[in-house]
UniProtKB/TrEMBL annotation, chain A:
It comes from Streptomyces luteolus. Belongs to the thiolase-like superfamily. Beta-ketoacyl-ACP synthases family. Signal peptide: none annotated. The lineage of its organism: Bacteria, Bacillati, Actinomycetota, Actinomycetes, Kitasatosporales. This is Ketosynthase chain-length factor. Keywords: Acyltransferase, Transferase. The keyword Acyltransferase applies.
Automatic annotation (TrEMBL), chain B:
Residues 3-417 form the Ketosynthase family 3 (KS3) domain. Belongs to the thiolase-like superfamily. Beta-ketoacyl-ACP synthases family. Keywords: Acyltransferase, Transferase. The keyword Acyltransferase applies. This is Beta-ketoacyl-[acyl-carrier-protein] synthase family protein. It comes from Streptomyces luteolus. Its EC number is 2.3.1.-. It is an enzyme of class 2 (transferase). GO terms for molecular function: acyltransferase activity. It comes from the Bacteria. PANTHER family: 3-OXOACYL-[ACYL-CARRIER-PROTEIN] SYNTHASE, MITOCHONDRIAL, POLYKETIDE SYNTHASE-RELATED. InterPro entries: Beta-ketoacyl_synthase, Ketoacyl_synth_AS, Ketoacyl_synth_C, Ketoacyl_synth_N, PKS_Beta-ketoAc_synthase_dom, Thiolase-like.
């Protein structure tokens, strides 16, 4: 039941780098991908910055028949999955279809596709709605399309837990591997930078109204005032350590521990659940807090949420007890794509002995965190903790062990 | 063998024809149908104009006006069903560590109804390409990302353990419960509040199924519109609803003297990797999932007393599924009763899997097999015993329930009555 599960491949689509090499070079170099929205005119909206992926041309990567039936999010996910499989050295056509599964997370499905069809419905009439609408927008689309493209018939799934979902998907993938499936394609890619998606993200007033890309999303900053959404994420290939070893695969690291909680109802007076999720993940990995070499924080960029996270980290690790970083300060918040990208980032950081920085933040002195600021910090890390928190109180934590 | 076994100790159903599992069972066991002409909006422009709607008053079921306002209809169903299931179980969740109680909510299309309605407003009836945020409600984000359903259920019952939405299209209702079972088995939690909810009856959903002719155009006789396995079937009838369960580990359920409805003895899901909406006629991947669920339950196919079918009433589904039963159960497929409650309550997408688990549990509880309504004409490709029209009294101790969904998902669950599984 507790056989080790490892990551053997990754495919990255991020605002500051398309493909693992570009993303990693940008991220360790502190290069941000946040800018003014170009995919629609944001002038009239109270938030105008996002992390958009530049230069993604789906036609270069996917057969043309897939294009009319897919949202941008699915095209990105399919390409990231192709890259992840290639990176792992896996040719799925050579595998047993029933021995390969797909478990992804989603936050909003193919929302831009859905916007187009809603517009047709309400402006022209129901008979103008696309025959692809029934499956192009829903939350299961990426898992379904990845399984079809790669002939994967094993146990598959889709979880939705806002920004925490990316870690929940990896945990579910690990569960399926422990139950006997050899390989699971997992992770998440999200993208809803379209007018309708933007209006939905604006609801609740959590987005930063700043027009300065270097001042808009400032996790743990004394002037943190909100979030900048982004698009993208990472698709990872998970296998049993034994299977990976048997086929001579190169291993990035192990998904060693996982824990999840949800915060109590607002106003209940009970404490938030992040520290509990971390403690569960540490226990699951069989490590102590002292064994954690680096924390990839969620970094909400909203003072109340930053405070809760900082307190959970200091409660577990002591004041300035562990290096903490938020590389998503360079990408914006990618919804369910964020945490798998952080997992990829953490594995690369351990491989190369360098912790990528949190950019633009001037830390609030109330938080006793050892933030890795502005520049990458050389550190030989062997064990990393990745945190992800979703709107509604979702807390998930994963412990990674270097290969 | 010290594997933790998972049992259902509480449940509730909100389905077309009535809120509450008693009314749900009355409808099924009497073979009545709850399909009707759409009343939620003017269906005149649509090809399919029938649906199975729930008559549901949110505040009448204990939601406050603010809860009603911030939740999409599907979330309202989920919260009411989950709360009632917890009450039905008699469990005192406050006495347990809340971090040992988790939540899974299956949904295929989340807050589609709310999103459709709010899009109409912010786009001013489709007039504005750049939609107007000033007309958006403050809770619109809860519609964008349906994990809000899981948060609402967790808050409503006081759960603080692992909580998520499972969204695998039309198998979500089985997969959400299957996911929860795995968490209890592995020991991550003691109790799961698991179920599913969907409320998709809105113009955008009707339009998208019209476009692929998946729903029936039989609006001249709406109460006879859903005809699974019938030779004249021509599409499904869209439904809505929710079912929730309290899942516990067997020994702790026994210790507190809980009423045990059933054991969830086996579960598996596989994908066809073939087409987002199409099915190969051979049913191979569904058969594979059934075989694995039976293995996990340590039950032979010929011990299944009743098969609760997906039975959506589309040409391809019913043929696909019939083939899957033959492949997985062998000659027993011809002997065991197979029925589709979608003939009575329609197809509520991600919710129906949980509603069908509830029907399966009640079939064991009452030793009655619910019928397939509206089944009058035989189809040579559907040649099993589909229990036409009238419910059947018979001993039911083991049930196989299955689902098939867009995206290629094929899921199967084996339920066993406590009479059988613990002797």
């Amino acid at each position: 039941m507790t056989a080790p599960v490892v990551v053997t491949g990754m495919g990255v689509a991020a605002p500051n780098g398309l493909g693992t090499a570009d993303y990693w070079a940008a991220t360790r170099g502190g290069k941000s991908g946040i800018g003014r929205i170009t995919r629609f005119d944001p002038t009239g909206y109270p938030a105008r910055l996002a992390g958009e992926i530049p230069g993604f041309d789906a036609q270069e990567h996917l057969p043309s028949r897939l294009l009319p039936q897919t949202d941008r999010v699915t095209r990105l996910a399919l390409v990231a999955a192709d890259w992840a499989l290639a990176d792992a050295g896996v040719d799925p056509s050579q595998g047993d279809p029933l021995d390969m599964g797909v478990v992804t997370a989603s936050a909003a499905g193919g929302f831009e596709f859905g916007e187009g069809e809603l517009r047709r419905l309400w402006s022209k009439g129901s008979q103008f709605v696309s025959a692809y609408q029934s499956f192009a927008w829903f939350y299961a689309v990426n898992t379904g399309q990845i399984s079809i493209r790669n002939g994967m018939k094993g146990p598959s799934g889709v979880v939705v837990s806002d920004q925490a979902g990316g870690l929940d998907a990896l945990a579910q993938a690990r569960r399926q591997i422990r139950k006997g499936t050899s390989l699971v394609v997992s992770g998440a890619v999200d993208a809803s930078i379209c007018s309708w998606g933007w209006v939905a993200q604006l609801a609740g007033d959590r987005l930063s109204s700043s027009d300065e890309p270097t001042r808009a999303y400032l996790p743990f900053d004394r002037e943190a005032t909100g979030q900048v959404p982004g698009e993208g994420g990472a698709i990872l290939i998970l296998e049993s350590a034994e299977g990976a070893r048997a086929r001579g695969a190169e291993v990035y690291g192990e998904i060693a521990g996982y824990g999840a909680t949800i915060d109590p109802a607002p106003g209940s007076g009970r404490p938030p659940g992040l520290a509990k999720a971390v403690a569960t993940a540490l226990g699951d990995a069989g490590v102590d807090a002292a064994d954690i070499d680096v924390v990839f924080a969620d970094g909400a960029g909203i003072p109340e949420l930053d405070r809760v996270e900082a307190e959970a980290i200091t409660e577990l690790f002591g004041p300035r007890g562990v290096p903490v970083t938020v590389p998503k300060s360079m990408t914006g918040r990618l919804y369910s794509g964020a945490a798998p990208l952080d997992v990829a980032c953490a594995l690369l950081a351990m491989r190369d002995g360098v912790i990528p920085p949190t950019v633009h933040t001037d830390p609030c002195p109330d938080y006793d965190l050892d933030l890795v600021l502005h520049q990458a910090r050389p550190t030989q890390a062997r064990t990393a903790l990745v945190l992800a928190r979703g709107y509604g109180g979702f807390n998930s934590a994963v412990v990674l062990r270097a290969a | 063998m010290n594997e933790r076994r998972v049992v259902i100790t509480g449940m509730e159903v909100i389905a077309p024809g009535g809120v509450g599992k008693e009314r749900f069972w009355d409808l099924l066991s009497e073979g009545r149908t709850a399909t009707r002409g759409i009343s939620f909006f003017d269906p005149t422009p649509f090809r399919s104009r029938v649906a199975a709607e729930v008559d549901f008053c949110p505040t009448g079921h204990g939601l406050t006006p603010q809860e009603e306002r911030r939740m999409d209809r599907a979330a309202q169903f989920a919260v009411v069903a989950a709360r009632t299931a917890v009450a039905d179980s008699g469990i005192d969740l406050g006495s347990d560590d809340p971090h040992r109680i988790g939540v899974t909510v299956g949904t295929a299309v989340g807050a589609t109804m709310g999103l459709d309605e709010e899009y109409r407003v912010v786009s001013d009836g489709g007039r504005l390409d750049l939609v107007d945020h000033r007309y958006a409600p403050p809770h619109l984000y809860n519609y964008l990302v349906p994990s809000s359903f899981a948060a609402e259920v967790a808050w409503a019952v006081g759960a603080e353990g692992p909580s998520t939405v499972v969204s695998t299209g039309c198998t979500s209702g089985i997969d959400a419960v299957g996911y929860a079972v795995e968490l209890v088995r592995e020991g991550s939690v003691d109790v799961m509040i698991a179920g599913a909810s969907d409320a998709p009856i809105s113009p955008i959903t009707m339009a998208c199924f019209d476009a692929i002719k998946a729903t029936t155009p039989r609006h001249d006789e709406p109460e006879r519109a859903s005809r699974p396995f019938d030779g004249t079937r021509n599409g499904f009838v869209l439904g809505e609803g929710s079912a929730f369960f309290v899942l516990e580990e067997l020994e702790s359920a026994r210790k507190r003297g809980a009423h045990i409805y059933a054991e969830i003895a086996g579960y598996a899901t596989r994908s066809n990797a073939y087409h987002m909406t199409g099915l190969r006629p051979d049913g191979a991947e569904m058969a594979e999932a059934i075989g694995l669920a039976l293995d996990e339950a340590r039950i032979n196919g010929d011990q299944i007393d009743y098969v609760n079918a997906h039975g959506s009433g589309t040409k391809q589904n019913d043929r696909h599924e019939t083939a899957a039963f033959k492949k997985s159960l062998g000659t027993h497929a011809y002997r065991t009763p197979v029925s589709s409650i979608k003939s009575m309550v329609g197809h509520s997408l991600g919710a129906i899997g949980s509603i069908e688990i509830a029907a399966s549990v009640l079939a064991m509880e009452y030793d009655v097999v619910p019928p397939t309504a509206n089944l009058h004409t035989t189809d040579p490709e559907c040649d099993l015993d589909y229990v036409p029209i009238v419910a059947r009294d018979q001993l039911v101790d083991t049930v196989l329930t299955v689902g098939s969904g867009f995206g290629g998902f094929q899921s199967a669950m084996v339920l066993a009555s406590p009479d059988r599984s613990f002797v």
